[in-house]
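cron nightly-structures :: item 1 of 1
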Amino acid sequence: MIAAILICGSLTAVDGDTVRCDGQLMRLLGGGVPFQSGIDTPEIGSHAKCIKERKLALIAKGRLKELLEERGLRIDIKGYDNTPKHRPLINIYRTNGEEIGSKLLKDGFARTWTPHHKNDWCTG
């Protein structure tokens, strides 16, 4: 699949691994490969399984929001998910070349994601 580069007039954090570009929800891959590897952050709000996960989700979202405020971000579309909304699966690169999802992973705001693996944010 050929990657596409996207330009957003408005780019906001929805949660720790989802952004909204001009109204379109998009999922961060964190440098991963669609359907094979990526990042996972705690679920926000009613999707959280415990209070700890809900709190961690707000922290991860806050850090992603900070990173999205940087000028000159580059968004690469790597594919689309299998949900009815067909969300773009993306990597966002900072001007220094660092991928934002990988930065969240490195700094402890995210964990690696692989198919059929669920991260437990409540006990770990």
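cron nightly-structures :: done
The domain at 4-103 is CATH 2.40.50.90 (OB fold (Dihydrolipoamide Acetyltransferase, E2P)).
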